[in-house]
Every structure is written in structure tokens, then in C-alpha cells.
Design goal:
Blueprint lengths: L1 E7 L2 E7 L6 H4 L25 E4 L2 H29 L4 E7 L5 E7 L7 H11 L2 E6 L3
Parallel strand pairs: 5-6
Antiparallel strand pairs: 1-2, 1-3, 4-5
Length: about 140
């Protein structure tokens, strides 16, 4: 597939085109983006969301994703796990993911019950200086 820079949650992310699923005729059936979602929906009401493709990614951007970003995400995961232990929170942080433009850092976690991680998020924001997103995964 071809790597492209695409519209993301308040920024830009790197995606891969796996296959073309829409024709030029289908483009007429897609309504403009809504303010809340940032994605476009077909007028027919189907559950199809189309993100804007800004351009094809160059070799340097792809190399950054495959090398530096992976290392940074592992470092972020290790730091978050350490902070969770320090704060004695009953949760298990299992993954971390930077948005391509580094404006958002998502931590994926599991927990048996509700966890108040507001102080954890403040600690992480102070260190990474980017928006922190916590996403609970099913166990």
C-alpha cells in the first residue's frame, strides 16, 4: 500500500491505503465534514467515514514512523507504567501511540474498575508537553 498523510484528531497522522474502495461516482454521495467528527459521512447514512488525504508521505516521514516513533512510544509506555506504579493505581498500561505530528499521545490500559487517573495525566502532560489520551481496552 501507499503511505499518506491524513486528517486526524486535531492534527495529522500517517496512514496506508490498502485498496481503493470508492469510485469517483461514489464521491458525490459523500456529504461535507461535520464539525464534531472531522470526518465525512455519505448522504445515504451508512457507517462509512472518509478522512481527508493531504498528500503522499515521503520516504523520510515513513522512516520516522517505522524507527523513531516506535522507540519514543516504547519510552512513553515505560514512563507511564512507572508513574502508575508510583501512584499505586489499579490499572495496567499495555500500549502507547503517538499521533504522527506528536500533538496527541494515547495510552491504552486495562482495569477491573473505574480508575481516577487525573493526576497521572497531569504528570504525563508535564513531561511530554502534548495532549494525553487514556483509552480503556476490554480485558
Amino acid at each position: 500500500g501507499t503511505y499518506v498523510l491524513v486528517e486526524a484528531d486535531r492534527g495529522v497522522d500517517l496512514g496506508m491505503i490498502k485498496e481503493d474502495v470508492a469510485s469517483a461516482d461514489d464521491a458525490d454521495d459523500v456529504s461535507p465534514a461535520t464539525e464534531n467528527s472531522g470526518s465525512t459521512q455519505p448522504a445515504s447514512g451508512k457507517d462509512v467515514y472518509v478522512k481527508r488525504i493531504f498528500r503522499v508521505a515521503d520516504q523520510c516521514e515513513v522512516a520516522d514512523l517505522l524507527n523513531n516513533k516506535v522507540v519514543d512510544e516504547q519510552n512513553a509506555l515505560n514512563m507511564c507504567q512507572s508513574k502508575v506504579q508510583q501512584r499505586k493505581l489499579s490499572m495496567c498500561v499495555v500500549d502507547a501511540e503517538f499521533q504522527f505530528d506528536r500533538r496527541k499521545l494515547t495510552f491504552y490500559f486495562t482495569a477491573d474498575r473505574r480508575v481516577d487517573f487525573r493526576e497521572l495525566v497531569r504528570d504525563l502532560f508535564k513531561h511530554f508537553k502534548t495532549r494525553i489520551w487514556m483509552c480503556q481496552q476490554q480485558q
